[in-house]
Amino acid sequence: RRKWGKVLGVLREVEEGCETSVGRLKQVVDAMAVEMHAGLASEGGSKLRMLLTFVDNLPSGSEKGTYYALHLGGTYFRMLRVKPEGQRSLALARDVERQLIPQHLMTSTTEDLFDFIASSLKEFVEREENGSAFPLDRRRELGFTFSYPVKQTSVSSGILIKWTKGFAIEDMVGKDVVDCLQQALTRKGLSMRVSALVDFPSLVNDTVGTLALGHYHDADTVAAVIIGTGTNACYVERMDAIIKCQGILTSSGGMVVNMEWGNFWSSHLPRTSYDIDLDANSPNPNEQGFEKMISGMYLGDIVRRVLLRMSQESDILGPVSPKLLTPFILRTPLVASMHEDDSPDLAKVAKILGDTLEIPDVPLKVRKLVVNVCDVVTRRAARLAAAGIVGILKKIGRDGSGGITSGRSRSDVRIKRTAVAIEGGLYTNYAMFREYLNEAMVEILGEDAAEQVILEVMEDGSGIGASLLAASHASHG
Ligand code: ADP
Fold first, then answer.
1. How far is residue 131's CA from residue 343's CA, in Å, rounded to a whole number?
2. Are 76 and 98 in contact (CB under 8 A)?
3. Which residue of 109, 141, 203, 425 has the fewest CB atoms within a 10 Å radius of its CB?
4. Whose Cα sits closest to atom 6 in ligand 1?
5. Where does the Hexokinase N-terminal domain lie (predicted)?
C-alpha cells in the first residue's frame, strides 16, 4: 500500500500553507513598513529592534590606505585586508581568508571564542605582512563585523543582546563585544585598534558592512540585505524619523539603522505546522520568526520535517529512516542540489536521499515529489524576502507607490534609481532562490518600478565594507 493519496494530501497542505500570492506579499510589505515605524517610535515598540548603528556617512569611493577587517558570521569567520586606492571605479585590492567556525566554540566561553579569533588574526597579519618590517605591536586599524544583535552606544562599543543562528555562549550576553575582542588581541600580543579613535566605526553589523561596500560602488545604494545562515537588513533613515532617539545630530542628517529583521513577525506570514514545530524545538522559541522561514540555517530542516511527515503517513519512502528524525541533518545546500538536479532520472536527488537520509532506491515518481517539496519551501522563503525588501523601500518612499504625493495618476509616479546591496550564501549560491526572489520583486513592484530597483551582489561585502568604513572615517573624519 503506497498511499499516494495521503502523500499528495500532505503536499497540497504544505502548498496551501506556504501560499504567497502577490496580495499576501503586499500585506507583508505593509506590515514590514508599519513595524519599522513602530520600532523607530519607541524602544520595544516592535519585534523589529531597529537598532542605531551610529554610522552616518557611507564610503564615497575616495578612500585610501590599508585596513584590516574581521567578520564573525554564522558559519564562517573571515579575515580581510583591503587597500582602497581612492578611485571608486578601480577594482578593490583585497585578501580574504575564510575559516569554518569550530562547532564546539559556538557553545563554549567568550574567552575560548575570542582567543581563537585573535590567534587566527595574528597568523593572518603575519602572513600578509611577511617580510615587512612592521612590528606586530604597531597599531593597525581593524573593522569588526559582528552579525548578532548588539545594542550600540557609539560606533566603538556595543553590548550583545542575544545570540542567534545556533550560537549560545551565555557568559557573553550583556558584555561589550569590542572589549571582548580587544582583550583577546592583547592576550595574543597583537596590537590592533578596535576602538580608541574618536568616531572610529570599529564595530559594525554585517549588514552595515554590506551597505558600506554597496555605497562605495554605487552612491544610489540605500539598503542592504543578508541572506545566508541567518537573515537581516539595514538601511539609511532620516534622523528626524528615529523618534525614539532625539537629540543626536549627525552631519549627514541620517543614520544607518540595523533592523534585525530576522525577528520580524506578522500574522500575514504564511505559517505551517512545520514552522511551529521547528520553532518550538529551537533554542530560541518565539524569536527570529522571519529568519526561521527564510534563511539557510532552517530551510533544510523544514524540508526534512515535511519528508518525515510523508514517510510517517505512507510507505513511499520505505520504513521511516532514523535519519529523517534527526534535526538539521538535511542542510540547505543539499536542498539546493536536489531542487536544481537537472538529470533526467534525478540521480542527485536519489544520491542525497540515499547518502544523507539513508533512504535507498527511491523511485522516480517519489524523487519528483521530493523536488516539489524543496521548491515549495524555497519559493516561499525567496518571495517573503522580496516582500521584506519592498517593505523597506516603501518605508523610505522608494517603492514607486507615490507615498503622500499621490495626487498624480499611478503611471506618473516616477521612482528614483535605487540600489540594494545583497549578500549571503543562500542568495549567491542558490540560483532558484535568487530567481524566485527577483521574480517576486517584479510582481510586487510592477515592471516599471522594478526596473529602477537594482539588487547588487556584494561578495564579502560585510567584511570589506567594514574596513572601508574605517578608511572613510580615517580620511574624512
Ligand atoms: P554566514 O551567513 O554564515 O556568514 P554565508 O553568507 O556564506 O555565511 O552563508 C552561508 C549559508 O548559505 C550556509 O549556512 C547555507 O545555508 C547557505 N548556502 C551556502 N551554499 C549554499 C548552496 N549551494 N545552496 C543553498 N544554500 C547555500
1. 51
2. yes
3. 109
4. 424
5. 11-216
- Strand intervals (E) in 51-92: 51-52, 67-72, 76-83
Ligand 1 binding pocket, CB closer than 6 Å: 73-76, 228-229, 296-297, 332-333, 336, 424-426, 429-430
Q: How far does residue 200's CA lie from ligand 1's centre (Å)? A: 30
How many Å apart are CA 474 and CA 161, to the nearest integer?
29
Gap from CA of 331 to ligand 1 centroid (Å):
10
The C-alpha cell of 11 is what?
503536499
Between the CA of residue 136 and those of 81, 115, 140, 188, 190, what are the distances in Å?
Answer: 15, 17, 9, 10, 6
Atom 21 in ligand 1: residue holding the nearest Cα: 333
Q: Hey, which residues does 226 pair with through a beta bridge?
A: 232, 423
Atom of ligand 1 nearest to the CA of 147: 4
The residues pairing with 238 across neighbouring beta strands, listed in sequence order, are: 254
pLDDT tens digits, 16-52: 999 999 999 999 999 999 999 999 999 999 999 999 9
C-alpha of residue 228 to centroid of ligand 1, in Å: 5
- Using the mean position of ligand 1's atoms as its centre, give its distance from the Cα of residue 422 in Å: 13
Check: CB of residue 229 under 8 Å from CB of residue 165: yes
- Domains of the chain (ranges; CATH) run 52-214+460-476 (3.30.420.40)
What is the ipTM, given to two decimal places?
A: 0.98
> Whole-model pTM?
0.91
Which residue among 75, 302, 328 has the greatest number of ligand 1 atoms within 8 angstroms of its CB, and so is best to mutate? 75
Q: Where are the alpha helices (DSSP H) in 151-295?
A: 177-187, 206-217, 273-280, 289-294
Who's near 82: CB < 8 A, 6+ residues apart?
66, 67, 68, 69, 92, 93, 94, 464, 467, 468, 471
CB 56, CB 256: distance < 8 Å: yes
Nearest to 429 by CA among 452, 457, 396: 457
Task: Kindly report the three-state secondary structure assignment for every residue of 95-148.
Answer: EEEEEECCHHHHHCCHHHHHHHHHHHHHHHHHHHCCCCCCCCCCCEEEEEEECC
